[in-house]
Amino acid sequence: MKKIVGVRFKKLGKIYFFDSKWLEVKKGEHVIVETSQGEDIAEVIIPNRIIEEENLTTPLKKILRFASEKDLKHEEECKKKEKEAYEYCNKKIKEYNLDMTLTDVECKFDNSKILFSFTSDGRVDFRELVKDLAAVYKTRIELRQIGVRDEVKKIGGNGVCGKELCCCTFLRDFETVSIKMAKEQNLSLNPTKISGNCGRLMCCLKYEQEVYEDKAKRLPHIGAIVSTPEGEGEVDNIETLKEVVRVKIKDGDIYKQKKFSINEIKIIKDINNENEDEEEKEYKNELNELENLEKQDKSMNK
């Protein structure tokens, strides 16, 4: 058995687990931990959890000690340096006329490095900028290009649902999303309705996708011919989550529409209709641009 503790280095950062050994920590306390890049300060989020050692996939690094008043003061000094470095770097970016947007500065707790995060549509030659930063701060300088999703995560905001953005509350990793997901969930393909604050496809398209894919395997496609308790007809609408289809049935000289559950129908002839609907045709260029941006982000993060 091993006692582990979950900590976070930044307010909206990912939770990492460490071996707490003999320390009894409480949520909200600050501790000094051992990392691959040296000592760092972190806030306890999940205190004192017991786990079987065989369930650990990799050895855990250790919590070294509780953060002292000196450590907390040094953390404040680091934050002050980060603000100063942010302003200085932005000034130099303008001087060199670089096509990049600075989003964040992180000063390592052990003063081994200052990390500057930025966004850009392409590659940037920032060699002269690095030289200037190194000359001023006398430490290792690292510039890291991040995606627009990471930028919005740092800025914060509210989504179209009215709630705080997922990436600012619980979402730690960005998974790939696609236009295909929106189509399979019968959502509007208007780009403004399926794009988030970052201008990319909304991350929440991924949340229910597995459920939709599972239910879609049991449902016919629109245009399929099915047998119902009231006769044969053509499927003209599908409610995937409810597993209900609406069927158009001929009744004399007119057609009537009625809903049936998947258990009430039998598929006679299914049609895998891959044709574009009118809304998809209307926004084809914008949708293609969204897909291309997703591919660019994915390739950049490799």
Largest beta-sheet details: 5 strands, antiparallel
Helix content: 25-40%
Structural class: alpha+beta
Provide the residue-averaged pLDDT: 89
- The CATH topology of the domain at 74-146 is given as GMP Synthetase, Chain A, domain 3
Strand order of the largest sheet: 2-1-4-3-5
Question: Can you give keywords for this protein?
Answer:
302 residues; alpha+beta; GMP Synthetase, Chain A, domain 3; SH3 type barrels; 5-stranded antiparallel sheet; 8 helices; 13 strands; 29% strand
Overview of this structure, please?
- The protein has 302 residues and is an alpha+beta fold.
- Among the domains are: 2-67, no CATH class; 74-146, GMP Synthetase, Chain A, domain 3 (2-Layer Sandwich); 222-269, SH3 type barrels (Roll).
- 28% of the residues lie in helices and 29% in strands.
- It contains 8 helices and 13 strands.
- It has a 5-stranded antiparallel sheet.
- Strand 11 and strand 12 form a beta hairpin.
- Helix 1 (69-95) runs antiparallel to helix 2.
- It is elongated, with a radius of gyration of 27 Å.
- The two termini are 36 Å apart.
How do you describe this structure in short?
Helices cover 28% and strands 29% of the residues. It is of the alpha+beta class and 302 residues long.
How are the SSEs ordered, and which strands pair?
Layout lengths: L1 E7 L6 E5 L10 E6 L2 E14 L11 E4 L2 H27 L5 E7 L5 E7 L7 H11 L2 E6 L2 H8 L23 H6 L6 H4 L14 H8 L8 E4 L2 E9 L4 E8 L2 E8 L4 E4 L8 H5 L1 H17 L2
Parallel strand pairs: 7-8
Antiparallel strand pairs: 1-2, 1-4, 3-4, 3-5, 6-7, 9-10, 9-13, 10-11, 11-12
